[in-house]
Specification:
Blueprint (H helix, E strand, L loop, with lengths): L3 H25 L12 H19 L3 H27 L9 H26 L10 H7 L2 H13 L6
């Protein structure tokens, strides 16, 4: 992790993961966490373990972690986003839309946007390749111009020994 964006995204992933832990824990105790309820308790708990592995893979700059993170959260939260948006757009439904649904929509929207941001961060990062460049040491080890300057300077120094 060399970029600030990666650090921030991993921190946001961890914070969202902690929020989902609190939601799942409160649902198991029979309550809700600030109006949030898991859509499916068993899948929520399985996702907590999958996302923990994904956080580690994203911190190691592996593209597989971002893809798994997007697929798992995209499928889980994407279905809820479409369900709530269709309920909002169809007011003739008998379901009453309250503030809890809007808060769930916000959290679900974050659950879809965060994996997309992680995937784009890893795809757009040029330093994620097998041989990343390190500016701290490449000036010494991979600088041919510096070597040429030293060679030219060494050829001009013709000191006489007595």
């Amino acid at each position: 992790m060399k970029n600030l964006s990666t650090y921030l995204l991993v921190i946001f992933m961890f914070m969202f993961w902690c929020l989902r832990i609190a939601v799942a824990f409160n649902a198991e105790l029979g309550g809700d966490f600030a109006g949030l309820e898991p859509f499916n308790k068993q899948i929520e708990i399985a996702l907590l373990f999958i996302v923990l592995v994904c956080i580690i893979l994203v911190a190691k700059r592996k593209l597989l972690g971002a893809i798994i993170y997007l697929l798992s959260y995209g499928l889980y939260f994407g279905a809820d986003v479409t369900k709530i948006i269709t309920a909002i757009l169809n007011p003739e439904d008998t379901q009453v839309i309250g503030m809890g649904n809007y808060f769930n929509l916000l959290i679900s929207f974050i659950g879809v946007i965060l994996p997309l941001a992680v995937l784009f961060d890893l795809l757009l990062d040029k330093g994620r390749k097998a041989n990343p460049r390190d500016k701290k040491t490449d000036w010494f080890y991979k600088n041919e111009e510096y070597d040429r300057k030293l060679d030219e300077r060494a050829d001009k120094n013709n000191y006489r020994t007595l």
